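Methods — Computational structure assignment.
A single polypeptide chain was analysed. Its primary sequence is given first, followed by the predicted tertiary structure written as structure tokens.
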Amino acid sequence: MNEKPNSVVGRFRAREDTAGSALATSAPWLVTTEDREVAEAISNLYGAQLRPRPKRGHVHELLVESSDIAAITDGPLVNRMLLTAGCEVTHACDGVHFLDPMAAAGQPCGCPTSDFERKAAAGSGSGPVPDLRITFRLAAAPDAGRFLLTSSSWDLAASLRAMNHAPSGARLKLTLDRKVVTTRSGMTVSYVSPVLRSMPLDASFPHQLRMAA
């Protein structure tokens, strides 16, 4: 398989399925790729089944029931916060320092220090929200290519900060965490957030799947 530099072969997303009003018992990853060989590798590794993608027949879609994905980072872990006005970005930071514009890069951004206050500011429209990007390879099939995970999850942002700028090639675990909460009205709701955790250096990966050249 010929891989273009800096390209991605597929995307991972958090996906929560529900049946009626019942809470889902699983929180699978939704994986999409335009490469049939990559789709078959995902299916073989995780037992995922291909799903039809209406109106986009060239895209293969799979639900991966395994919530833990052993990964090897391939590129920077982008932990960014953005505030926009329409299509214009008015504030870009990492929660502590400005990232843009270049003239202000590295200077204190003035954001609150706690996630509670950051969420409150974001909810009122006065503060930025997470804009996260992780590029990685599957530890069980590194030559399948680079995958991308983008998210606006506050939980993922917190876990990225805990990684302390892990270098490219770090061994990490992508996990889907489910939280169930009861609202003031008495309604029980659940939500799923992707999080990133470090893996011990001596952790064993599943058997590796080799892709055809």
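Note: Residues 52 and 61 are 7 Å apart (CA to CA).
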